Amino acid sequence: MQLRNVSPSDVDAYVRMRCDPVMMADLGGPLPREEMADKVRRDAREAAADLAWIKMIVPDPHTPDVVAGTVTIWSHDTEDGPISEMGWMILPEFQGRGLGKRAVHALLSQARDEDRWGVVHAFPATRNAASNGVCRSVGFRFLARREVEFAGRVLNSNHWAITPRTDLT
Ligand SMILES: CC(C)(COP(=O)(O)OP(=O)(O)OC[C@H]1O[C@@H](n2cnc3c(N)ncnc32)[C@H](O)[C@@H]1OP(=O)(O)O)[C@@H](O)C(=O)NCCC(=O)NCCS
After folding, report:
1. Is the pLDDT of residue 111 over 80?
2. How far apart, in whole angstroms, are the C-alpha atoms of residue 49 and residue 152?
3. Which of the listed residues 13, 98, 128, 153 has the most CB atoms within 10 Å of its CB?
4. Domain containing 99: what range?
5. Whether residue 150 has pLDDT greater than 80
6. What is the CATH number of the domain that holds 135?
7. H/E element holding 41?
8. Number of domains comprising the chain
9. Which Pfam families does this entry report, sorted A to Z (predicted)?
């Protein structure tokens, strides 16, 4: 498995991940398809400028165009001040094979090695067993249940946090 920066040519993978009702069931529902070309271009620019880590998961380096999903760390403001947050998605045909866990672990290892991002937070939906499983299996600490806003919608989430230098399994 390899991680590479998102590029503008990843629009099909974005549509499959973000415009699909099943993939987005715990993220407030599907996003409009017509917004994806613009979204992927903006993400590619942010990733190239190293403002955020927005990575595509490539299961087999021999076929770099075949992507299994995405894993991201970015920083944003909250009412309690700026935080680093992590998110991930694995396409259905690649789920349940440990790829989500390996990709999240790989990006947190990079954060640890580069001493970047500080404490990393994640807010999976309380009912998303696989996503909470990813948190538990790489060493995130469970902090609390809370409501978070995503894409303008309020979601019931679990708040997890990890300090990669000390907590990564
Ligand atoms: C959540 C998601 C990223 C998980 O990726 P994955 O590659 O299928 O997960 P993995 O195979 O790496 O499993 C990670 C851990 O979760 C556990 N797990 C996986 N699926 C599970 C399930 N359905 N129920 C309970 N635990 C589960 C695994 O056993 C593993 O833990 P372990 O190492 O202790 O055994 C993926 O299912 C997905 O993208 N779903 C749709 C979109 C989504 O929900 N995104 C996240 C929003 S918060």
Report:
1. yes
2. 26
3. 13
4. 2-167
5. no
6. 3.40.630.30
7. helix 36-48
8. 1
9. Acetyltransf_3
